[in-house]
Specification:
- The chain has about 60 residues and is low in regular secondary structure.
- It has one helix at about 10-15, and strands at about 35, 45.
- It has a two-stranded antiparallel sheet with strand order 1-2.
- A hairpin with a 5-residue loop joins strand 1 (about 35) and strand 2.
- The longest helix has 6 residues, at about 10-15.
- It is flat.
Amino acid sequence: MKASSVPPMRRLLGTAVKRQRTRPPEDASGLADIVVKDLDGNEARLGSFWEDGPAVLVFLRHYG
């Protein structure tokens, strides 16, 4: 899809025009013991999110 044929809202939001390939890690067990903070400042071990099943980890950039 050419950039000029992308709907204006998609251009505005900066969504990908081409489908991108994913490269998930073969073994994510090294991430399990990393501790992060939630929005309330509570600490959470990353591994706790996928104890019961698969999980998606998304990083959001903060500008400000």
